[in-house]
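=== RUN LOG ===
request id: a7f3
mode: sequence -> structure
chains: 1
length: 52
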Amino acid sequence: MDEDLTFLASTHNPHCTIIIDKQLVGYYTIQLMTEGALFLSYDQQEYHLSGV
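=== RESULT ===
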């Protein structure tokens, strides 16, 4: 298995209101948020995240 970090996609939208509902089996994500808030769920876990 390759141990390198590979970015599959990235984006920036300061006024994003999109809902993404997809499964990426075997992948991990990094979420960076400097302001605002978002609702995030993985499997049965749900989170409300707020920026500074």
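=== NOTES ===
The CA atoms of residues 39 and 51 lie 12 Å apart.
The radius of gyration is 13 Å.
=== END ===
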